[in-house]
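Recap quiz, item 2
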Amino acid sequence: MHTPSTAARPSIYYHYQVFKPWLASAHPEQDRKKVVIVGAGPAGMVTALELARHGVPSVVLAAELQFSQGSRAICFTRRSMEILQQVGVADRMTAVGLPWRFGNSFYRGQRVFRMEAPHDADDRFFPIINVQQQFMEEFLHDACQANPLIDFRWGNKVTQVVQKAGHAVLEVDTPEGPYTLDSDWVVAADGGRSGIRSAMNLQMEGASYEGFFVIADIRIDLPYPTERLAFFDPDWNPGNTILMHREPHGIWRVDYQLPPGETPEEALRPESLKTRIDAQLAMIGHAGVPWEMDWSSVYSARTLTLPEFVHGSVIFTGDAAHLLPIFGVRGANTAFQDAQSLGWHLAFVVKGLAGHKLLTNHSAERVGAAREIIAESGKSTRFMAPPSRGFRLLRDAVLSLSLTQAFVRPLYHWRTSRPHEYSHSMLNSTDDDNGLFKAGPAHGAPPQNVRLGPGAGDGDYLLDHLGGGFDLLYFTDAPALPESLQAVIQNVRAQGVPLKVIAVGATQPVAGADQTLSDADGHLRERYGVPFDHGSNAQAQGAAYLLRPDQHICARWLTLDATRLQAALAQALPQ
Amino acid sequence: MTDKALNMDGLETVYDALATALDQAGPDKAELFLVKLALLNAQALADEQLFRQQVQAALLDL
């Protein structure tokens, strides 16, 4: 019998609601499900919301009865916010979050590096926004509850997954005992300690780093803006690194490395936490400022991924699929990208709009992303937590040089999570004009957001208008789409493929387009590399971009014709 | 390797300067000093390939 705690988790700033468990006895007999999602963290819930957006129902199983303990993931990237906008919770994140774009690294009391993340006028969202994970989970949960296609079950713990031919049978334990659930697909979004991954005995590739870090959330009033603070090799913790982040509700995250040999149990003793937090506050000139502990935890740096995310009927996503270091905010931010990708890939397979090859593509793209992140974040990790004597000497030499030598200072900048570009995706068109464009997002790239100028869409951003299916941006000032293109569009729609057409560049609505953005100042065309003459207002007619349901570009043409549009859609939906 | 080379006087000057600096750094900091120096030299060299060759040359016959 599974008996999740019914006592609300302690927190000094977040009120935990304890939800009622879902009990099989209170529901009718169940048919085989299309998709069961194991895990109700960011990866699980975004997968459910994306699936629902494409009309695919799912069951979400949450082992506990409440949101996760402590702030956990607190920094969300611009791309994460763009994904959260797609599933309808970005406004709530913006309402509570603290946006930022600057980071500061200190050594021997001197600021030796200032990171300035670019913030383009065309971006709706800041490079990073800080929100505690419980709030983010609450917003996603509310969105799931509001969606009739999502069957959310608290207090349901998966104890076994048995793969059969073309489906899987799950044993689910609840406070009234177990029941079985049959599903065509199982999404294993059960986190870094994935029980499903362990039970299937799947090996991950990559490295684990020695050394532990403590994260502690304290309520304290500190007179600093929302910027990342990093302190290297301070007197109170020689050779180690301390990070500080402001969180909403007067909370600060203090993150420090432990000396070699100290165990997590020792480090989390209240007197040990207090001594170190007091030492850190004293070092930054705030000794004696009162503070209160909310939550603490210990982590270590790992760069591990499964080499394949799809195993029969089971698909791994988020931390269940890979374990990525905290440096560069890789965890939840990667999970959102995984889930957004999985949502549409799986939905199109479930709906029969593409063959199993589409899931092969999902796995190839996201494993590729994980490997890229591992290569990048491995460098940051080797600087933050040197794994050997040689790496430590080099790091120390860089710290020392950085006081006087500018050339080493950029080494302080750990690369921040960014969307992977699926440059070599098998979904990319093979006969479009990708190579002929001089600007704009290329094959596999995420979309460039653009603030829309005077005329239709004024004040909006391009991404406000995208998503939910394929999007065709068609650049024209003609009164109508060519009939041959309209025929192709109607044909794919008739097969059930969602395809929205947005005409760009006409002052009047363009017949055959679902929406027209006038782009009177030509700015959107400029950002997308579509030739446009400001003086004469003359533009290339019939240039186009095709965006996948995750908004990554899969084809672009200087002049689109019906044959090539048909070919690009066939390429993007392999049978 | 480049065409530029130290002449004998120059090499002797480097020899003395490095030895004196190592003594000045002291045994505890000699390694750190040498790594800093190597990074400064690598930056001045501005040639990853050449730097790798020099690393290999220095690893010989230890």
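The CA atoms of residues 16 and 302 of chain A lie 30 Å apart.
The mean pLDDT of chain A is 95.
End of item.
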